[in-house]
């Protein structure tokens, strides 16, 4: 797309890209399980969001950026969503344009400071009820230098897989290549969920997961009026490349499990409880029938489900993570039963493997570390401890990077540091044991 310089040609290519979306004439969609989970929390989620800062190639100008943003808005319906009376409405093509969401910032110097400031402004500008689900900030450094593009999206419309889709679209546009068709719309997927929620075939397995209190962290209970995002503290931890390489290459195969199970095994060992209930977040992109294709669909598909960890392994899973959310939030008969079960104090998310920030076009920019947090400071915390893990490919090899987050009223910094140290040590032992088999 960016190969074409004339405005008329750019518009024609953008219009062609919009036409690859599978049509969905119905613009209303019901709340999905993860959206119900968010709406059940106390406090505001107006500014709950995710952001990425991308390296933009040399030679890109305002016309290129504007056309790219217009194309993303046209292709991906959820970027045009608006929250109305407890449901989401997708506005028609053209209802929101790049000029509505794009901010240009001249950044000939002081790039890090500009990114930090503008990212805070972008997060503060989000407003789902007003239909402001997206903000884009272009840090213009002149055509002779690579610039930066900050994309900030409300949590209601994005997940980790969505970012990969959006970044791939931008790279394909810059290369002048056709954009691959978007398959099943988020609306179609969301509207298929209530029918599936009527099946209670898996209920007993989820009841087994939640049966019994299990191990608990020794701390005061959560108070939604006191334990809000503004009180959260965080700690970052890294497993060195040598140990990470052994862990991801040998430990899952040696134990007959996935890398997520290995990370969770280290967690229950670090906590030191025989049984531990943990809420696990997964991608949730289940294609509910063979006709669905979600590989190019942008939206918040995340599924949250409980897993009972056992110190000796063989963790208790209830089945398809999406099914738990359906039974918990969309089935009025089973929802109260599952809600009455003991709740997990810990939430865990493995986001997969990514490339470390660098200078590659349309990849994470080196200044990504200064991008503002997407937490809404008034939103109530749901767990005592949140553990988010990625495997990052660095110049020295893959590294396990983990962020541990907690409400400061409930856990001390020293206690979390001790838990993190135990977790890293257990990961190292699992990697060593797997290699010895």
UniProtKB/TrEMBL annotation:
Q: Which InterPro entries match?
A: CAT-like_dom_sf (IPR023213), Condensation_dom (IPR001242)
Provide the Condensation domain boundaries: 44-313
Which GO terms label this protein's molecular function in UniProt?
catalytic activity
* Example GO biological process: lipid biosynthetic process
- Check the record and name the Gene3D superfamilies matching this protein: Chloramphenicol acetyltransferase-like domain (3.30.559.10), Nonribosomal peptide synthetase, condensation domain (3.30.559.30)
- Cited Pfam families: Condensation
At the top level, the lineage of the source is Bacteria
Q: Which residues form the signal peptide?
A: none
PANTHER family annotated for this entry?
ENZYME, PUTATIVE (JCVI)-RELATED, PTHR45398
> Which named protein is this?
Non-ribosomal peptide synthase protein (TIGR01720 family)
Q: Could you tell me which species this protein originates from?
A: Kutzneria buriramensis
């Amino acid at each position: 797309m960016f190969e074409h310089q004339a405005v008329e040609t750019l518009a024609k290519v953008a219009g062609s890209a919009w036409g690859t979306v599978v049509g969905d004439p119905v613009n209303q969609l019901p709340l999905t399980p993860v959206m119900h989970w968010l709406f059940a929390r106390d406090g505001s989620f107006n500014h709950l969001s995710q952001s990425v800062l991308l390296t933009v190639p040399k030679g890109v100008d305002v016309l290129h950026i504007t056309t790219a943003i217009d194309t993303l808005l046209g292709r991906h319906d959820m970027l045009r969503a608006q929250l109305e009376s407890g449901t989401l409405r997708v506005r028609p093509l053209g209802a929101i344009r790049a000029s509505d969401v794009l901010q240009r910032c001249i950044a000939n110097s002081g790039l890090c400071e500009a990114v930090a400031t503008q990212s805070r402004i972008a997060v503060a500008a989000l407003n789902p009820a007003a239909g402001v689900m997206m903000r884009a900030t272009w840090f213009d450094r002149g055509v002779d230098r690579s610039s930066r593009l900050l994309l900030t999206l409300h949590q209601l419309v994005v997940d980790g897989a969505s970012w990969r889709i959006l970044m791939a679209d931008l790279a394909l546009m810059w290369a002048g290549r056709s954009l691959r068709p978007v398959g099943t719309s988020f609306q179609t997927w969301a509207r298929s969920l209530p029918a599936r929620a009527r099946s209670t075939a898996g209920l007993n397995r989820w009841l087994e997961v939640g049966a019994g209190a299990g191990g608990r962290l020794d701390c005061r209970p959560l108070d939604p009026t006191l334990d809000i995002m503004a009180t959260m503290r965080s700690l970052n931890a890294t497993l060195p490349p040598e140990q990470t390489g052994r862990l991801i290459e040998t430990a899952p195969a040696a134990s007959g499990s996935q890398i997520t199970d290995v990370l969770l095994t280290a967690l229950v060992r670090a906590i030191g409880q025989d049984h531990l209930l943990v809420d696990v977040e997964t991608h949730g992109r289940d294609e509910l029938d063979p006709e669905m294709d979600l590989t190019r669909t942008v939206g918040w598909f995340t599924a949250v489900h409980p897993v009972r960890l056992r110190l000796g392994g063989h963790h208790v899973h209830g089945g398809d993570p999406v099914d738990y959310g359906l039974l918990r939030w969309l089935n009025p008969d089973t929802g109260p039963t599952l809600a009455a079960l003991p709740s997990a104090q810990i939430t865990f998310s493995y986001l997969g493997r990514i490339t470390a920030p660098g200078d590659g076009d349309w990849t994470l920019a080196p200044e990504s570390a200064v991008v503002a947090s997407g937490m809404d400071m008034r939103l109530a915390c749901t767990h005592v401890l949140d553990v988010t893990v990625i495997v990052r490919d660095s110049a020295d090899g893959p590294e396990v990077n983990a962020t541990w987050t907690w409400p400061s009223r409930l856990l001390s910094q020293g206690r979390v540091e001790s838990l993190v140290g135990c977790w890293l040590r257990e990961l190292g032992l699992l990697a060593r044991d797997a290699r010895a088999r």
